Amino acid sequence: MLSYFKKKKDTPPSNETTTPQVEKRTVPETTLHFHHDWDLSLQEKYVYRYHHTQLPPLQPNQISISKIDVVSEEGSYMVNAFIRSTVERNIHFEEITLLLLDETGAAFARKTFDLETMGHLPPLACMPWIFLFSEEDLLVDSFPMHTSWSLAFEWKQKTPAVHELSLHDSWETTLQPEEKVRLQNIVTSLPPLSAGEVNFMGIEAQQQDDGALAIMLLIRNGSEKDIAVERLPLCIEDASGSIIAQGTFTLDDFTVRANTSKPWTFHFPASLLETNTPDLSVWKAYPPQLT
């Protein structure tokens, strides 16, 4: 097995008839809200309230958009719609893309809107908003106004980024090609990280001739942002389940780029070890606050 330790610098870490009980799920209800800049008459508010009562129920934690009507004027189409949320927190929209769908579900118009001016949608709320489409936004020759059209969000699915191996400059220059290949194989063979997850994986542990313990970890960054590691407290457990070493390491200019894994070796001096004969047949490393 290839060993990396010789190349690293020290870095000090729930009727009377009995029936089966069926769990009842609470159907969330939304409250109608109007934007603070909208100056509506009592009649207009009454119409919105009526349409609001006709909306189908939503599931918990759902965001939905439903048409009210459309007004055509000089080549433009003012689509009046409800945006609803059964999420129990404020929802802030920035850019959204809407699709207008015909009776078959095929898109006949598409446009991206900036909803910064809308502000936030309160928890468990329903807010009307007007979306202006033009002839240029149509994907067909004309707007099928007298048919059962609908509108929907276009949820863009991001292609998962490829998780790659990232090496510190000092490793890049000192590792042999076969060692880099081994590390790359480890990175590609690991289960994918959840979005935003950062974790540590032990690669190799070895007790040195002077009694010090050298631990090589793979710092895995599953987020879409780079993370800078300056101070890293670590605990090491051996096969007995006992903590055999702990310490805090200071790292200089150590960044783990988005969607990459970076290896690093941490050296615990013999004075920090709880035993002189740790059983390293099975071991794990973790920051103490995660226990």
From TrEMBL:
Protein name per the record: Accessory Sec system S-layer assembly protein
Which NCBIfam families does its entry note?
Answer: acc_Sec_SLAP, SLAP_DUP
Q: Where is the composition biased (Polar residues)?
A: 12-21
Chain positions covered by the region annotation Disordered: 1-24
InterPro entries per the UniProt record, alphabetical: Sec_acc_SLAP, SLAP_dom
